[in-house]
């Protein structure tokens, strides 16, 4: 029998991943029992069957083979998770009781699968600006050497001008235009002659059929596929014949495409808005709740955030604690900062609903809220490979500032830097109610709209020296409301949880 810490160390997954597995019913909920002597002063400890580690290893294997979580849940019969004993066994019989109750995973069913790393033909992944994010060795046949980071059209234009080359270029342009790009933006760094050539080809480009996979029969000997992933568009050049037919059939069944293109995504220097949210008073809430209820709460927060972040074209990444770190990369319409603020604002409303549910459930007055910091800047972003798969991450001052600001925020406030508001269009900024609260001469709280302040002026001097020395002079403001949306900030006392 393993406690949660031992299980995480043995499997290499994060606590958030474990919470998700529990919520899906593919891993049993922990049995909360009195602690062992070596567990210290913890009031209760959650224990898992030892077979849970084997189950997690099987889940990770299936994920690496490209299975979706919904498919994995169905595979393990999520409606019938590993059962636990209804009565609490004595300490010396815990392992036997839990082991006897564990269900064996059903046998693996072989499925057709494909990994982008296994494509033997030229293949490359491009981002929103059609810069090359990933490429295999065979892509040199089409793009030439070392295409990383450059516009893919620049490489395709280097090939001799032939009908086949023009057809491939028209296909790439059609896919780009379908995704909102313009020839001027795609060719902004190309010579005038090549710019004019792309203009000519774009006029004759035929929009590909909508769908996950677009297809071009380029000449008599090869096909080109454009496969849409969340991270970008994968182009694959495949000779005509059985190989092309097999690839097409596998790609059309999206859930059997194995291999995450993020695994080898090249680091990219990009404009990015970062939203960091921390659960206020998390240690005290942990102390107040049974272990399984705390895990349930954290998992509910993650599940509530995921559709909000995705809807606003963001990505969840690594976070050192039980909070959220969300990244919003620059979009073609330049709306990444606005997307970040909308997501933070909607998450505040989602937390308000979740807090009311827990108040009714527990009979307490504690307000559950996420203290939020938002910053914007240019950073290197990429992925790290871990036991749980590829995780989006970034390093630099933007993430550090957003994290520090979230630590300063209280009562579910959203604080954003001057950089964030500078990135907004005038019509977007007009929808914001933003500013800072100050004390007037009589000591009354007064809201001053449309101004910034600094942490050194807003926080107590000793707190600035201890916690926010590096951020003391950073201009920030509070996002109180966004017109036309739900989630207005209600000022509350920074109360203590039960």
From TrEMBL:
InterPro entries: A/G_cyclase, MerR-type_HTH_dom, Nucleotide_cyclase. SUPFAM superfamilies: Nucleotide cyclase (SSF55073). GO terms for biological process: cyclic nucleotide biosynthetic process; intracellular signal transduction; regulation of DNA-templated transcription. GO terms for molecular function: adenylate cyclase activity; DNA binding. Residues 273-406 form the Guanylate cyclase domain. This is Uncharacterized protein. Transmembrane segments: none annotated. Residues 1-78 form the HTH merR-type domain.
């Amino acid at each position: 029998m393993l406690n949660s810490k031992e299980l995480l160390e043995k499997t290499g997954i994060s606590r958030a991943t474990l919470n998700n597995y529990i919520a899906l019913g593919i891993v049993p909920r922990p049995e909360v029992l009195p602690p062992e002597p070596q567990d210290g002063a913890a009031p209760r400890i959650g224990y898992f069957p030892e077979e849970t580690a084997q189950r997690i290893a099987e889940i990770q294997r299936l994920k690496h083979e490209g299975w979706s979580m919904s498919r994995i849940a169905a595979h393990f019969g999520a409606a019938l998770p590993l059962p636990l004993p209804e009565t609490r066994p004595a300490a010396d019989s815990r392992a036997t009781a839990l082991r006897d109750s564990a269900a064996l995973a059903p046998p693996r069913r072989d499925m057709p699968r494909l990994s982008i790393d296994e494509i033997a033909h030229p293949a490359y992944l491009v981002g929103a600006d059609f810069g090359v994010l990933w490429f295999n060795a065979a892509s040199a046949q089409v793009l030439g050497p070392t295409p990383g980071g450059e516009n893919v059209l620049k490489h395709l234009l280097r090939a001799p001008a032939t009908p086949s080359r023009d057809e491939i270029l028209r296909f790439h342009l059609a896919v780009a235009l379908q995704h909102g790009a313009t020839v001027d933006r795609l060719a902004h760094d190309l010579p005038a002659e090549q710019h004019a050539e792309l203009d000519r080809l774009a006029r004759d480009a035929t929009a590909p059929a909508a769908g996950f996979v677009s297809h071009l029969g380029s000449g008599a000997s090869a096909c080109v596929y454009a496969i849409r992933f969340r991270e970008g568009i994968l182009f694959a050049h495949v000779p005509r014949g059985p190989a092309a037919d097999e690839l097409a059939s596998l790609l059309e069944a999206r859930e059997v495409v194995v291999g995450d293109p993020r695994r080898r995504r090249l680091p990219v220097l990009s404009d990015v808005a970062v939203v960091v949210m921390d659960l206020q008073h998390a240690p005290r809430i942990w102390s107040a709740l049974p272990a399984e209820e705390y895990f349930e709460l954290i998992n509910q927060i993650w599940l509530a955030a995921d559709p909000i972040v995705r809807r606003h074209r963001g990505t969840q990444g690594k976070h050192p604690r039980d909070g959220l770190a969300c990244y919003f990369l620059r979009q073609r319409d330049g709306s990444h900062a606005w997307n970040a603020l909308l997501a933070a604002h909607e998450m505040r409303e989602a937390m308000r609903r979740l807090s009311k549910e827990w108040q009714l459930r527990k009979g307490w007055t504690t307000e559950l809220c996420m203290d939020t910091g938002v910053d914007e800047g240019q950073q290197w972003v990429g992925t790290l490979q871990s036991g749980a798969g590829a995780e989006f991450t970034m390093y630099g001052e933007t993430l550090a500032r957003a994290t520090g600001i979230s630590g300063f925020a209280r009562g579910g406030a959203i604080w954003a830097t001057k950089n964030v508001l500078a990135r907004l269009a005038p019509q977007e900024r007009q929808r914001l109610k933003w500013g800072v609260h100050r004390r007037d001469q009589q000591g009354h709280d007064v809201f001053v709209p449309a101004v910034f302040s600094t942490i050194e002026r807003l926080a107590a001097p000793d707190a600035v020296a201890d916690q926010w020395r590096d951020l003391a002079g950073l201009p920030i403001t509070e996002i109180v409301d966004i017109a036309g949306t739900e989630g207005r900030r209600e000022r509350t006392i920074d109360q203590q949880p039960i």
